[in-house]
Structures are given as structure tokens and as C-alpha cells.
Design a protein that fits this description.
The complex is a heterodimer of chains A (about 260) and B (about 250).
Chain A (H helix, E strand, L loop, with lengths): L1 H30 L8 H40 L6 H39 L2 H7 L4 H40 L3 H11 L2 H28 L3 H31 L1
Chain B lengths: L1 E10 L2 E11 L3 E6 L6 H8 L7 E6 L2 E2 L5 H8 L2 E4 L11 H12 L4 H14 L15 H12 L6 E5 L7 H15 L5 E6 L2 H7 L2 E6 L2 E6 L1 H6 L3 H8 L4 H5 L1
Parallel strand pairs in B: 3-8, 3-9, 6-7, 7-8
Antiparallel strand pairs in B: 1-2, 1-4, 4-5, 9-10
Helix pairs in contact in B: 3-4, 3-5, 4-5
Classes of the chains: A mainly alpha (about 260), B alpha/beta (about 250).
Bound molecules: adenosine-5'-diphosphate and magnesium ion.
InterPro entries (chain A): ABC_MlaE_roteobac, Permease_MalE
GO molecular function, one term (chain A): phospholipid transporter activity
Membrane topology (chain A): Multi-pass membrane protein
């Protein structure tokens, strides 16, 4: 009994410690954005990596999500003769939820893992120490460009995902559900306001911030050689996933 | 130049460094010798401000670096050059970008001037022609030399070496020894070398500090260390039968 309480207590302390450390890292990263201009080369590099690098797979994902959305909802709607609202359903689901969240997952898997693996490798090979002895703050040099790039690029990717998802939905709607392209888009634009899209993008920004911050945090924490890099990279992706799910709920309530 | 006073470093509950006091002087090469795991790297990391000691102070030209902010520490560190055990080159940059890195960060030199300095430092460590190679293409000894060129880029007053010979074959290790001896001739330089290799230590040292179980068990000129009647010192030295002829 006492043992398990102690164990629980230790875990709890560890949890709060980690939360604190993540928040401190985030705060330091944000504060070093003041000097962003001095590090613009790395910011550009990260933007290219996150944006251009992620776009093809994001487009593929968006297209199929749009299609499957139209397929599944269209099939149900047909049973109730409600297929006229398929445009609204596909558009709203994508812009408000699926676009930002699934892109968040994709970015967590692709970008978050890369951030942790890269920084973690630098950590174990003393490159981070080398930066610090050369008087260069690793938060400024490594975290800040990744945070800025993620916060800007993830929403942009989401715009593309939304657009191509809507197109995918239109194709299925026209060929399978029997709602023409014209009425699909009429219905979609009737219900999908700019405001709704913008709130989805705001969430995407948050998810980008989560992925970059957790990616950097786990990278800086890496110990235990090459094996450790694998362990911490996995932890980074899993933690980003969890935080995206949780934050999605609370942000949705806040922004509803 | 650098004074270490009553330095204690604890990791979890074990005391790694236990009340060390010594100084690193100008125009002097201090070699810290001890078995693996004795805390040599930890000591070096304390002195360059990578970790904070549990207690004690480290004075760099009078300023206690254990009690100042990271920003102030960064200013002091511009006088430091560190060669890490694995050289710690940035793997995503070429050799010349690595050497240019501290210059780009801290000096407002134009491209031409930076290129000149990089070439000068690379030729100092005999790496001409390797400018555009990536660290992954270099051998262990070349990595060490490139790391040294980077450490020297800002013309530091203090240079720190962590196991400069670790993982090198004897011939390449000899080259690195020569380089260190060459650096000793630069006026006003303070050098600290941390190593478990006796022969190397005795070859380059002006002063030796011998660490055992967290404490300094012997300190002095190489010849004085050899004369020490401490049992452990003698045991350590016996691993090397002809040490007297080298230091004599
Ligand atoms: N961050 C750390 N993680 C794990 N062990 C550490 C850490 N800092 C110090 N130690 C402990 O300190 C001791 C000395 O390590 P180190 O300074 O690397 O020794 P040396 O360089 O002499 O081989 C080791 O026993 C190690 O377990
Ligand atoms: Mg060591």
C-alpha cells in the first residue's frame, strides 16, 4: 500500500515536473522570437521542410478523407433522402475537425519525430553542449525556428487539405451519391463561413505549436545513445498525439 | 586565470566531485588524470558552465561563473574553446561551415574575412582541402582536428580538451599530441586537458592533477607526481613502466 502510494506520488511529481519544463521551454522559445530575424535562414529551412515536405502526403490524405467522408455520409443521407446537405457536411467536418486534427497527427508523425530525432542526436553527440559553449542558445537556434515554422506552416497545409478534401468529396458526391457538383458547392458555401474555416486554422496553429514544442522538449531530454533517440522519438510522437486529442476538445469548446 | 574553489558536484545522491580546489594558470597546460568514470568530464563541464556545481565557486578572471546568468556566461565563454570527446561537429554542416559557425554567430566579418580565418585555422590543424567534406566523411582523427579548428576560431584564451586521444590509433594520437604541443607555444594560452591516458598526459602537461574517488590525490609538475609516495598514485603510474624516462 505504502509502496504503491509512493510510486503514484513519484509519478505525479514527475508529471508536474515535465509539465513545468515544457511550459518553461515554450515560454523561452516564444521570448526568443524577438530575435527571429537573426535566425531567418533556419526558419526558412524549417518552413521548407515542414511545408513543402509535408504537402504531398497531406494532399493525398486530404483527398481520400474527403472521398470517404462523402461516401460514408452520402450513403446514410441517401436512406433519409437528405443527400442535399452533403456539401455542408463534408465542408464543415473537414474545416472544423478533420482537416486540422488529421493534419496535426500527420505533422506529429512526420515533423515531430524528425525534430526529436535530430535534436536528440545532437544532444547525445554533444552538439548541443558545443552550441552552448560557443555562446549560442539552443532554444534560440533550434527551438525557435521550429516553433515559428510549425505555427505558420501547419495552418497553411490545413488550407490545402481542406480544399482537396472538398474536391474529393465533390467527386464522390457527383458520381456516387448523385448530387451534382453545382448543388454540392452551393450547399457547402451556404453553410461554411469564413469564420468556421478560420477557427479550424486557429486550432491547426495550436497543433503546430504542440508538435514543435514537444518535439524539441523530447529532443533536449534525450539520453542513452542511439537507442535513446528511438525511445524519445516515439515518446514525442505519442505525447503530441495525446495533447492534440485533448487540446482539440478544449479548443473546440472554446471556439464553438 | 581560472580558480576552482571547494567545488562539489553531486549527481542524484552520489558525490562525483568532492571539494576540489585548484587553479588553471596562463601559459600553463594543466592535465587532469583519472580513471574512467572518476568525473573528469563532469569537472570540465562545470568549468565551462555547461552544468552548475552543487556548491563551490569557479572564478574566471575574478567573476564567479556559478552565480551568473546564461547571458553573462555567454560573454565569458567567447574566450573559451572546447574540444569535446567526440569532437561534436555539427553533422548537418560541412567542415568549413563548422569552423565558420562561431565567427558567423559572434563576429560581423564579411564572407571574405571569414573564409580567410577558416582557411587559416584548417591549415593550423593540417586539414587543408577538407573544407567541403561533411563530418560523416571524416576519420576519427580528422574529426578531432576539425573540432579543434572550430574551437580555435575565435582565438580563445582558454582551451579545454576532453579525452583528445580517445578512440584514436597511436600514430594519429601522436599527431594530436604534436598539435597540442604546438598550441602551447601560443602566448597567453590557458589549457586544460582531461584524460585517462598517462603517457599522453605526462607528455603535454606543465601541471598534473590526479583525481581519484572525487578527490585530488596528487598535484604538481610531472616530475613531482612521479616522486609522490601516495600508494594509489604509484599504482596508477606502475601501469606504465618507463614513465620516469618520459617525464625526466
Ligand atoms: N548527467 C549524468 N548522467 C549520468 N551520470 C552522470 C551524469 N553526470 C554525472 N554522472 C556520473 O558522474 C560520474 C563521472 O562521469 P564523467 O564525468 O563522465 O567521468 P569521466 O569523464 O571521468 O569518465 C559517472 O559515474 C556518472 O555516472
Ligand atoms: Mg569523460
Amino acid at each position: 500500500m505504502r509502496r504503491s502510494l509512493e510510486y503514484l506520488g513519484a509519478r505525479l511529481i514527475r508529471f508536474f515536473e515535465a509539465t513545468g519544463e515544457i511550459l518553461i521551454l515554450f515560454a523561452r522559445t516564444v521570448s526568443s522570437c524577438r530575435k527571429a530575424i537573426q535566425n531567418r535562414q533556419n526558419i526558412m529551412k524549417q518552413m521548407a521542410f515542414m511545408g513543402v515536405g509535408t504537402l504531398p502526403i497531406a494532399l493525398l490524405m486530404g483527398f481520400f478523407i474527403g472521398m470517404v467522408l462523402a461516401l460514408q455520409t452520402g450513403y446514410q443521407l441517401l436512406r433519409f433522402n437528405l443527400e442535399g446537405i452533403i456539401g455542408a457536411i463534408v465542408g464543415l467536418s473537414l474545416a472544423k475537425e478533420l482537416g486540422p486534427v488529421l493534419t496535426g497527427y500527420l505533422v506529429a508523425g512526420r515533423v515531430g519525430a524528425a525534430i526529436t530525432a535530430e535534436i536528440g542526436t545532437m544532444e547525445i553527440s554533444e552538439e548541443i553542449d558545443a552550441l552552448r559553449v560557443m555562446g549560442v542558445d539552443p532554444v534560440f537556434y533550434l527551438s525557435m525556428p521550429r516553433l515559428i515554422a510549425a505555427v505558420f506552416m501547419v495552418p497553411i497545409i490545413v488550407i490545402y487539405v481542406n480544399a482537396i478534401g472538398i474536391i474529393g468529396g465533390a467527386i464522390i458526391s457527383a458520381t456516387y451519391v448523385g448530387v451534382g457538383i453545382q448543388s454540392y458547392f452551393d450547399n457547402l458555401f451556404d453553410s461554411l463561413t469564413f469564420d468556421e474555416v478560420f477557427r479550424g486554422l486557429l486550432k491547426a496553429m495550436f497543433f503546430g505549436g504542440i508538435v514543435a514544442t514537444i518535439g524539441c522538449y523530447k529532443g533536449f531530454k534525450t539520453t542513452g545513445g542511439a537507442e535513446g533517440v528511438g525511445v524519445y522519438t516515439t515518446q514525442s510522437v505519442v505525447l503530441s498525439f495525446i495533447l492534440i486529442v485533448v487540446f482539440d476538445y478544449f479548443l473546440s469548446r472554446l471556439l464553438l | 586565470m581560472i580558480q576552482v574553489r571547494n567545488l562539489v558536484f553531486q549527481y542524484n545522491t552520489t558525490t562525483v566531485l568532492d571539494d576540489l580546489s585548484f587553479s588553471l594558470n596562463k601559459d600553463e597546460t594543466t592535465v587532469v588524470i583519472g580513471r574512467s568514470g572518476v568525473g573528469k568530464s563532469t569537472l570540465l563541464r562545470c568549468i565551462v558552465g555547461l552544468v552548475r556545481p552543487t556548491s563551490g565557486s569557479i572564478l574566471v578572471e575574478g567573476a564567479d561563473i556559478t552565480a551568473i546568468s546564461e547571458e553573462e556566461l555567454n560573454l565569458i565563454r567567447r574566450n573559451f574553446g572546447v574540444l569535446f570527446q567526440g569532437a561534436a561537429l555539427f553533422n548537418s554542416m560541412t567542415v568549413s561551415e563548422n569552423v565558420a559557425f562561431p565567427l558567423r554567430q559572434h563576429r560581423n566579418y564579411d564572407k571574405q574575412k571569414i573564409r580567410e580565418i577558416v582557411r587559416e585555422k584548417l591549415s593550423l590543424v593540417d586539414l587543408e582541402g577538407c573544407e567541403d567534406m561533411m563530418p560523416s566523411e571524416l576519420s576519427g582523427g580528422m574529426k578531432k582536428r576539425a573540432g579543434l579548428a572550430r574551437a580555435l576560431a575565435l582565438d580563445p584564451k582558454c582551451i579545454f580538451f576532453d579525452e583528445p586521444l580517445a578512440g584514436l590509433d597511436p600514430i594519429i594520437a601522436g599527431d594530436i599530441d604534436e598539435l597540442i604541443l604546438k598550441l602551447k607555444k601560443v602566448a597567453g594560452m590557458t589549457m586544460m586537458i582531461v584524460t585517462h591516458e598517462l603517457l599522453h598526459g605526462f607528455r603535454v602537461a606543465d601541471k598534473i592533477i590526479m583525481l581519484h574517488e572525487g578527490k585530488i590525490i596528487a598535484t604538481g609538475k610531472p616530475a613531482e607526481i612521479v616522486e609522490s609516495d601516495d600508494e594509489y598514485v604509484q599504482q596508477f603510474l606502475r601501469g606504465l613502466p618507463d614513465i620516469r624516462s618520459i617525464s625526466g
